[in-house]
Amino acid sequence: MGAEPELETAEGSGSKSRARVRAKVPLHRSLLVRLLATSVMIAVCSVAATAWLAARTTSSAIRQEQGQLLSSDTDIYDTLVGYAAAHPNWNGVTPTLRRLAERTGRRITLTTQSRRTIATSSTTPAAAAALPTRASAVVDPLHTDPALLPDAGANRIDPRAVGPYRLTAAERASLSGRAHKLLACLGGPGAGAALVVGPSGRPSIKITNSALGGVSGDRGCGLGGLALPVASEREPLDRLTSMVNDCLRRRHLEPVKFGVDFVVVYGGPSAQTCLDTTRRDQLTPYVAPAALLFVATPTGSTTAPAFHFTSANTTRIAGVAGLVLLVTVAVTVVVGTRLVRPLRALADAARRPVEEHQRVPVTTNDEIGYLAAAFNDLTQRRERMEGQRKAMVSDVAHELRTPLSTIRSWLEAVQDGIATSDQALVDSLLEEALLLQHIVDDLQDLAEADAGQLRIHPEPLLVRDPVRLRQVIGNLVSNAIRHTPPSGTVTLRAHRAGDRVTIEVADTGTGIPAEDLPRVFDRFWRAEKSRSRRTGGSGLGLAIVRRLTEAHGGTVTVTSTVGAGTVFTVGLPV
Predict the structure, then answer these.
(1) Could you tell me which of 66, 186, 286, 424 has the fewest CB atoms within 10 Å of its CB?
(2) Measured distance CA(508)–CA(481) in Å, rounded
(3) Is residue 336 one of the residues assigned to a domain?
(4) What distance in Å separates the CA atoms of residue 122 and residue 98, rounded to the nearest whole number?
(5) CA–CA separation, 10 vs 354, rounded Å?
(6) Are residues 179 and 64 part of one domain?
(7) DSSP 151
(8) Which burial class, exposed, middle or buried, applies to 368 when counting CB atoms under 10 A from its CB (0-12, 13-18, 19+)?
(9) Which of 317, 369, 382 is nearest to 343 (CA)?
(10) Same domain? 415 vs 545
(11) Is residue 17 part of a domain?
(12) How many domains does the chain contain in total?
């Protein structure tokens, strides 16, 4: 029972190393996962950087392009609203559309509410007929778009729609002279006052509170007189006042008064609503009717035209791409160097001479670390096998030297006439030759067993039949006889237990110490450390017993008590 524990002890360190090598690598320490993670990280960084830069650059370019489009669209809308505010119809608008199209690079079309073409900037009939499904805006000076024309004010009436309030040339000249005098009274343009001429031709002076220097009023210059209506304004203003007050009476509200600035001082929101509605009714005959505005690219698309990267944007993209490439190369070099360094150490150790038994440090807990551990385990087993080989060569040489020396000595004695070549000498020399033959045969059996070429023919047989089984039992019995005194006994027993046959060879010899039991099946091992031949044998018998038994799928064990005897047990499958 002691041989198997020794087998585990002798192979223990190597088995542990091999078990560690075969152990599953933790996922987070896996070389494959680390390489994959590095590649994914580089790819994610590259994609993120490129996407970020592309998004920033594209957004900037789109904003710039959209700003230009919005500016051009606002210019088109403002120009056409101004045209509608100053003309009672669209009859002469075509030249204006073409000038706008040439300036903005857009195709402009005006239609009625029923989408009948009023005018277009295109000279191609087919292009003029192809309109987008949705209008860009409604051109109506009495209902302006506050997003495109914020100067119209809360009432959304374009200030350029003056209608009957347009001044004559004489009235403009008179009011202009009066305005310049007032401006000089206030200290001139540099004193915080400015002269502004409205669309109707009426001048006005805009001043800041700081321009009055803290003095209340208008410094006695009479600014209020400039706001009084002139002759051409009184009649439409009186008519408007009457219409507004009629609207208020229908709502059971008090009448109001207002000036040429069309601001209701009192009366609340209802009064302002009546004023705005009445003004639209009064101005309708003087402005062009509302029209649908279609603004598109020359190809007919309402979307923004394709933009092009500027040289600055292209340079930024190229710079970031180069930086990402540089970082990628640097990270790859660092990671690659860390991965290759232990592999190079393994390669250098493998190229060293076999005699040095070079080992490498195990510094990681991944595939490379396990490879280094496997290399060290291989080196350890190679070193152990080399020691066993040297010991075996030494033992074989010793075993062969003794009989050869005996044979040579007797032959030289006969040759020199010292000894006589009689039957006793011949028998002695033959015994030594048989011992040599026995050693050679045993070595051949072990060599074939080590090479996996041991000739066996497994077949059912009785345990007393002579084949390889006879060699096993013969070696055990011979070994027992050699170590049992003449007064002792050697017992051979066999019995079957289940699917196994057990054969026991027991003796009452000297026994084997417990510390030597693990080595009884080693080649050339003897309990007698002096290598004497008092008990005979080649030291290979028990080694052959183990190899033959294992070749048949069996086991062999030994138990022994010093001074009481030894029992070898062979178990074979049925």
Answers:
(1) 424
(2) 9
(3) yes
(4) 8
(5) 22
(6) no
(7) G
(8) buried
(9) 369
(10) yes
(11) no
(12) 4
Residues in the chain: 574
Q: Kindly report the backbone phi and psi dihedral angles of residue 236, in degrees, each rounded to the nearest multiple of 5, phi listed first.
A: -65, -30
Q: What is the Cα–Cα distance from 502 to 480, expressed in whole angstroms?
A: 18
Which tens digits make up the pLDDT trace of 332-381? 777 777 777 777 777 777 777 766 667 778 777 777 777 888 888 888 88
Where b means 16+ CB within 10 Å and e means fewer, 108-143 reads bbbbeeeeeebbbbbeeeebeeebeeebbbebbbbe
| Residue of 465, 452, 534, 446 lying closest to 503 (CA atoms) | 465
Mean pLDDT of the chain: 78
Distance, in Å, from the CA atom of 202 to the CA atom of 38, rounded to the nearest integer, reads 76
Contact, 99 vs 170, CB < 8 A? no
Tokens of 110: 């005006």
Please state the separation of Cα 262 from the chain's center in Å. Answer: 68
Q: Where are the beta strands (DSSP E) in 77-157?
A: 107-111, 117-120, 137-139
Residues 411 and 549 in one domain: yes
Q: How far, in Å, are 227, 350, 362, 451 from residue 370 at the CA level?
A: 99, 16, 8, 29
d(CA 499, CA 573): 6
pLDDT of residue 53: 72
Distance CA 400, CA 431 (A): 13
Tell me 224's DSSP state: G
Same domain, 149 and 185: no
CB hemisphere CA count around 174 (13 angstroms): 13
**Residue 13 located in a structural domain:** no
Name the CA radius of gyration of the chain, rounded.
59
Residues 58 and 172 in one domain: no
Structural domain boundaries enclosing 505: 401-573
Closest CA to 31 of 364, 256, 351: 364
pLDDT of residue 14: 43
CATH code of 553's domain:
3.30.565.10
| 138 found inside a domain | yes
Q: What is the pTM of this model?
A: 0.46
Which of 365, 389, 421 is the last residue in one of the domains? 365
CA–CA distance from 476 to each of 139, 394, 473, 531 (Å)? 120, 25, 5, 20
CB neighbour class for 32 (10 Å; exposed up to 12, middle 13-18, buried from 19): exposed
Pull the structure tokens for residue 523.
């080649």
Do 247 and 350 belong together in one domain?
Answer: no
Q: How far apart are CA 515 and CA 9, in angstroms?
A: 13
CB of 274 within 8 A of CB of 246?
A: no
Is residue 294 located within the same domain as residue 261?
Answer: no
Quick check: 564 pLDDT over 80? yes
Judge if 65 and 32 occupy the same domain: yes
151-182 burial, b if ≥16 CB within 10 A, otherwise e? Answer: ebeebbbbbbbbbbbbbeeebbeebbeebeeb
Residue 43, token pair as written in the block:
């790819």
Which residue is it, tokens 């920033």? 56
